[in-house]
Design a protein that fits this description.
Layout: H1 12-31, H2 35-50, E1 63-66, E2 73-80, E3 83-88, E4 96-99, E5 103-104
Helix pairs in contact: 1-2
């Protein structure tokens, strides 16, 4: 997979195609027992998905469920690009950044 364009330069259709290709490659890696390769490809797909989201839809101080981690919630301190910076509720006091594509607004 030679990525010639940055995700920020891709159209919606290009991003969707990239995500499909990454998920397919991840599925194959998982079937072959290549756990590390699977994890890398899944992270790339999550990052590509972040570019399909509008950062303005995510608000400071709001709490979102973390996709793929049921029962875990994240409170946003600020948005920087396609990342939300903040804290996991009930977790450590260390600030972290999550791609906005991992945040699920339960009120929508």
């Amino acid at each position: 997979m030679n990525q010639e364009k940055r995700y920020s330069q891709m159209s919606k259709q290009e991003l969707e195609q990239e995500i499909r290709q990454l998920r397919e490659q991840a599925r194959k890696a998982e079937q072959m027992g290549m756990v590390n390769e699977y994890a890398v490809l899944e992270r790339k797909a999550v990052m590509a998905e972040a570019y399909l989201r509008n950062p303005e839809d995510y608000k400071k101080g709001e709490i979102y469920e973390i996709h793929g981690d049921p029962g875990q919630y994240f409170k946003i301190d600020y948005i920087n690009g396609r990342f939300a910076w903040g804290y996991r509720l009930g977790g450590t006091v260390q600030q972290e950044a999550l791609p906005i594509s991992l945040l699920v607004n339960k009120s929508k």
